[in-house]
Write a structure and sequence with these properties.
By secondary structure, this protein is mainly α.
Length: 645
């Protein structure tokens, strides 16, 4: 788009370009029949056209590891591997996928994927980086929603307006809706006095909302019309009005004290009913103390009656780090993004390129309408199915999962993308049927071994003639260490052991900083914003300050040093050694103790049998003379746990 040419435009596109942009067009797919073979047909046609050789299927062991890590983020057990490999039935893959999808670990795995995208953190991000003691409820809600296979339209509505959507429903369901709006509340806070910089928090929300649900970089329009995509500054400030009409939970900051405006998960009537007896006892106690003091002052001596008991602490109620409705208001454009340079007031409305509908009810913030506007766009379905595809294959059909605009990449298989989106909507917007569909394709089953010709012709594996190898994510790596050592706590994590709010004296020179040891799954580890958790910093964890659509993979010396020096790693190696000693006692009829333990170690750590040369090579680390030497077996454990395999 050339701005020197006089033509109607929306942001950085001409009107004609904007109306015809591929990502905004209606879904092209009309026939959604077929199953995995339909996906394979669309992929194979492109592979044949490129003349690429196709990799054969992965063996059962590789496929079981792939599917189990993919859906749960954990390694399969030795028993699961043995049972799957020995199963001769034709439907064993389907049953495997169903079992994994039914596991609570599925929600932990895919909930963490979503938390990457929405930049979840357990601290606020302003210059004291204060804790968010109640944010965990949103994290838990996300994990539970994935496990329940909540329809995507409901998933979106609740995160943007759950408090409004569930008004009038039973308390438990209303609470779920309130907690879900933690999506908005966890937006980063900025600066010293966060209220003065709330326009930056609004930018963070709008930027994330655009990328997460629409694959659009709407935040670019804060200071000027988008340079490339059809988003204007008027669009941006129309959305700002919706946020200005919303009350955000306040996490506290250095000049303004402790948290406030958190949302109670109980009605005013329930709170009053619980407080009434306590208030009555407090009044009686204070009256008795006053009477005794008055009597003493009058010289009447001590009264005969003892003081009534104090029963105790003030009643408390669960709170959500969430949002609520505020006074509805429209906001003015901030010229060049400067809140002190105001232009025209913009009514709350939707993006002009999608129709520009305005907020219907003047008495509401517009959050409920915003959810409906998003879901009405075919773009929203394209974005979420592309994410699912990426989570399975490592790369989306649109490689730039957060950017479906003109600066993003075009889809590698546009017909397949639209077919998946149409199928997803037709099946009620549920993710689990999409997983089943994708994971039963030949493409998902392919080996990662490929010919030199195939790798050179398609180095990025865009055409999927092979399955792309990938390194374990930070969470998978840590959880695997705990699982293999036998120390993994599979419980659902809740609140972190933050210090009580009444003790907070954090300043910009002494900000909050903590690392809380735990054997819970990595999704439940406390994630600070400003000072990344050391483990996740080393192994490419998601950045809590920005949406992470796809994890980066780096290879740096500190990763190798971790396996040499870190106490957590050594603890898991020692625990694995103890497990080997306990689970493989000396054979009663003789035989090699070392060989048996080495085989068991390989089965636990790598889900495969040790080769004879491996047993011979490693036997010296835990030989017959060192049968009960835990240090020797810990050395062997470190070798296996630090291996590239």
């Amino acid at each position: 788009f050339d701005p020197r040419v006089a033509t109607a435009s929306i942001g950085g596109m001409s009107e004609a370009e904007a109306r015809s942009w591929w990502a905004f067009a209606p879904l092209a797919a009309t026939d959604i029949s077929g199953g995995p073979e339909r996906i394979d047909a669309l992929l194979d046609a492109r592979i044949a056209e490129a003349g690429l050789p196709v990799s054969g299927p992965a063996d059962d062991r590789v496929f079981l590891r792939r599917a189990t890590y993919d859906l749960t983020g954990l390694p399969p057990t030795a028993d699961e591997l043995e049972a799957y490999v020995a199963d001769p039935s034709s439907d064993k893959t389907q049953r495997l996928i169903d079992r994994l999808l039914a596991s609570p670990d599925y929600g932990v795995r895919y909930g963490r994927h979503w938390l990457d995208v929405v930049r979840y953190a357990d601290t606020a991000g302003e210059n004291t980086d204060r804790p968010l003691p109640h944010a965990w409820r949103y994290r838990k809600w996300v994990i539970d929603a994935f496990n329940a296979d909540m329809p995507y339209d409901e998933f979106v509505r609740l995160q943007l307006a759950g408090d409004l959507m569930r008004t009038g429903e039973p308390r438990e369901r209303l609470n779920e809706g309130i907690v879900a709006t933690g999506y908005l509340a966890i937006a980063r806070r900025f600066g010293h006095d966060i209220q003065k910089d709330r326009h930056l928090t609004y930018e963070d929300v709008i930027d994330n909302l655009g990328k997460t649900y629409l694959g659009l970089t709407i935040g670019c329009a804060r200071c000027h019309d988008h340079k490339y995509d059809p988003v204007s500054s008027e669009d941006y400030y129309a959305l700002c009005g919706i946020l200005e009409s919303t009350r955000f939970a306040f996490p506290g900051c250095e000049p303004q004290g402790q948290p406030r405006d958190l949302v109670p998960l109980a009605s005013a009537e329930e709170i009053a009913a619980a407080r009434e007896p306590w208030e009555r006892r407090r009044a009686a106690y204070e009256a008795a103390v006053a009477a005794r003091a008055a009597a003493a002052e009058a010289g009447a001596g001590e009264p005969a009656e003892p003081l009534p008991p104090e029963p105790g602490p003030e009643p408390t109620f669960p709170l959500a780090y969430a949002v609520a409705e505020a006074e509805p208001t429209d906001v003015a454009i901030q010229l060049r993004g400067d809140p002190e340079q105001l232009g025209e007031v913009v009514p709350r409305r939707w993006l002009d390129v999608f129709g520009g509908d305005t907020v219907a009810a003047e008495a509401s913030s517009g959050r409920a309408e915003l959810a409906e506007w998003i879901l009405a766009e075919p773009l929203a379905a394209r974005v979420i199915v592309n994410r699912v595809w990426q989570w399975h294959f490592g790369r989306g059909l649109v490689a730039t999962a957060n950017d479906f605009g003109s600066r993003g990449e075009a889809p590698s298989h546009p017909e397949l993308l639209d077919w998946l989106a149409a199928r997803f909507l037709a099946e009620g917007g549920r993710l689990k049927p999409m997983h089943r569909l994708i994971m039963q394709t030949q493409a998902y089953r392919r080996s990662s071994l490929a010919s030199t010709v195939a790798v050179e012709a398609d180095p990025d594996n865009r055409l999927l003639a092979r399955f792309a190898r990938r390194r374990l994510s930070a969470e998978e790596l840590r959880d695997s260490l705990l699982a293999v050592s036998g120390r993994l706590n599979r419980s659902a994590g809740e609140a972190h052991p933050f210090p009580p709010e009444s003790t907070w004296t954090f300043t910009q020179h002494g900000p909050f900083e903590a690392v809380y040891p735990t054997t819970l799954r990595s999704a439940y580890v406390m994630r600070p914003r400003q000072r990344q958790h050391p483990f996740f910093a080393i192994f490419d964890g998601a950045d809590p300050n920005a949406s992470t659509p796809r994890r980066e993979t780096t290879t740096v010396p500190t990763q190798a040093l971790y396996f040499l020096n870190d106490p957590f790693f050594h603890e898991q190696a020692e625990a694995l050694a103890s497990r080997l000693i306990a689970e493989c006692p000396a054979p009663p009829g003789g035989g090699s103790l070392a060989a048996g333990r080495i085989q068991h170690a390989f089965s636990l750590a790598l889900q495969r049998a040790a080769a004879e040369e491996e047993i011979e090579l490693l036997g010296g680390l835990g030989g017959e003379a060192a049968a009960e030497d835990a240090a020797a077996w810990a050395g062997l454990a470190r070798v296996l746990l630090a291996s590239s395999e």
